[in-house]
Amino acid sequence: MSSGSSPGFARRPLAALGLTGLALAALGASQPAAAQSVDDILGKKKLQVGILVDLPPFGVVNAKNEYEGYDVDVARLMAKYLGVDLELVPVTGPNRIPYLLTNKVDVLVATFGITPERARQVQFAIPYSSIDIVLMAPKTRTIANAADLKPLKVGVARASTQDTAISAAAPQGTRIMRFDDDATTAQALLSNQIDAIGVNTITGKQIQTMNPDAGYETKFVLRHQPNGITLRRGQSDLHQWVNTFIYFIKNNGELDAICQKWLGVPLPELPVF
Amino acid sequence: MRAFGIDEALFIIAAVRWTLLLSLLAFTGGGIVGLLIALARTAPPTWLRRTAAGYIQLFQGTPLLMQLFLVFFGANLFGANVAPITSAAIALTLNGAAFLGEIWRGCIQAIPNGQWEAATALGMRHLPRMRYVILPQAGKLAIAPTVGFLVLLLKSTSLASIIGFVEVTRAGQIINNVTFRPFLVFGIVAAIYFVLCWPLSLLSQRLEQRFGTVSR
User: A198 φ, ψ to 5°?
Assistant: First the structure.
């Protein structure tokens, strides 16, 4: 479940994508992923969207065993505006790029942080949501900035933005422990297997609420993460449609309504590119 | 964040059917291919024995996890888009066949030479000798280790969670991420595996007592 690694390995950009990323980088190189246009999706009358199902409130399984969350609502809207059926495909943080590149899904709406490293493999549309990645640790531990992390063990969910952010920010010698998901990383923090955790603010708040006695606090913001719907590269037609779609639901208030529903705050200013 | 309640427990328990289905597919497939491997390993032609030995080395010598990855994501190289359950069943079949083939080869070769020679003396060629003399005896020997391997295989299905197949382990991970109760969640998952495996282990012991000493 856990995977510690030497700092040298952690610094290589591909390491952040995890084992699957590596394997698939090789596969992706030998087999160009199939490009599709808007017409292809209209033709098959179905949009297959990869979503995370273990990242509340963006993608979760509800009490009725249905997928729901911020990402799921965005995916529904997307299918609605395309006028096609929606198929939700559960993916995990580490396997979402492989799922996309091997044509198992058409797009990802998977709280996927936009980074140039990832954009070497996939293509991002303009942001539709954003989260802040912070470093959390017990109050008793003095951590002012990334340089103070050196003697510590820092846990992150592997192949997540917090993984990329910590790997970039932490000084040489920091022990970065990578776990399968946020819940496992949080448990490592609770059981003192790690000294600090890189986590998004929403999950961080849940960890604080659940363990009021542990005295966890936010030490500093690691990264402000705008998330983008993710496509295979070379699909300019579909890319343009997705950008148009995001632009439209930002203007007509539908995206704001989704943000209010799941995060309880108005839609923040989202950058465009 | 949610509390861990009856719905959450049911979500995990409902995933048992997928673990069982995957085990069943893997064991059926692994049994059929494994029998062919065992027969090839003990067949007269050298090339057949070597091919089967190579297959066993290949699949015993690489991690099941990699085999799962290669089948699931690699099928795309050939233009095939296989569902998680199909690729998991294929990978577990190929892997299970290597182990079952080797277990059964051992059982076949454990039949005393006298039996082989007696069958030959009766004018039996290789296939009838296998069919009527060797396999019925080897089968009895094989029951206990085969059931024992079934327990291992059932637990191996948890690896399918990594390619996104929602069996018991993956269901546990999903619920853990909304409830943040890892001890409770994975405790239940472990208990489920125990409930599935324990009767098999008991069966294995029983069968071993019953058939362990064939005609010696």
Answer: -95, 125
